[in-house]
Specification:
This protein is α/β, with parallel strands linked by helices. The chain has one domain: Rossmann fold. Helix content is 34%, strand content 14%. It contains 8 helices and 9 strands. The longest helix has 20 residues. The protein starts with 10 loop residues before the first helix and ends with a helix.
Length: 270
């Protein structure tokens, strides 16, 4: 399949396409909110993955341990609405034959190696066993791609770094320049800006905790292929989730869609 970079003429054009995607999605799954099983198991993943086989792409959400109190099951944040709304946009804005249902994958599931793209949210509360870290390392070294999102500030960065060091003890975590192909492989991203969560935005700021500035960081393999895309101090998931709601600013949803789709295309072509 041939993919070509292009620039949408203004954020309004992309917003119209997104709105059209949401309006045309069968039975309006993006408008439903349902409770996600926080104790989702490897057996559950086998059952879930049986649906919609033979697609070009599946948006898979990583299931991990971690969190406490209301943060318990932090991997479920914004699910399933963020996933389904984003999937509707992928379907409309690309020619990918994309799975239309949500997909959750624990690292211990035998299904994990069937899906080369993983999205992990709230990784400031993620906990990995050494077995899970070893599986994730193998997954990434064999060509998998991990996007992490929606974690903020010094404390959450420290926890994420501690966990990812179980996976790659010596690989550098690097700032990714705007010139990198991941920002130009489908949409031309013209600036790297902070994408705020809805609740934070309506408190009058775009940042959470002491995460004042957005960072786009990565971990690369020995050939220079990006394996882990780190969205730090931003919340793409919220921007996808609320893309169909007028009071969430379209400039943030448009940015989140551009970035997310670029990550997918990069993962499929590198």
């Amino acid at each position: 399949m041939n993919y070509k970079c292009f620039t949408v003429g203004g954020t309004l054009s992309l917003l119209i396409l997104i709105a059209s995607a949401l309006a045309q999605t069968d039975d309006q799954p993006v408008r439903r909110r349902s409770r996600v099983n926080r104790n989702f198991s490897a057996d559950d993943a086998v059952e879930m993955s049986r649906a919609e086989k033979g697609r070009d792409f599946a948006f898979a959400r990583l299931v991990y341990s971690g969190g406490y109190g209301w943060r318990y099951g932090a991997w479920t944040t914004d699910a399933p609405k963020a996933d389904l709304t984003f999937i509707a946009g992928i379907k409309r804005l690309t020619n990918l034959n994309v799975r239309e249902r949500e997909l959750y994958l624990p690292l211990t599931s035998k299904e994990i190696f069937k899906y080369p793209f993983l999205y992990a949210v709230e990784v400031g509360y993620m906990q990995l066993s050494q077995e899970e870290a070893d599986i994730l390392r193998e997954y990434l070294q064999r060509g998998g791609f991990l996007v992490v999102d929606d974690f903020h500030g010094t404390y959450e960065w420290a926890n994420f770094e501690e966990q990812i060091r179980k996976v790659f003890p010596t690989n550098k975590i690097e700032e990714i320049p705007l010139s990198h192909p991941v920002f130009h492989c489908f949409f031309d991203v013209e600036a790297l800006t902070q994408v705020p969560g809805a609740q934070t935005l309506y408190s009058g700021v775009t940042y959470e905790k002491d995460g004042y500035d957005a960072h786009f960081r990565g971990i690369f393999d020995e050939t220079g292929r990006l394996m882990v895309m780190i969205n730090f101090n931003s919340d793409l998931g919220d921007a996808w989730e609320w893309a169909d709601v007028p009071y969430y600013p379209e400039k943030y949803s448009s940015t989140a869609y551009r970035l997310g789709i670029n990550y997918i295309i990069y993962s499929m072509t590198h």
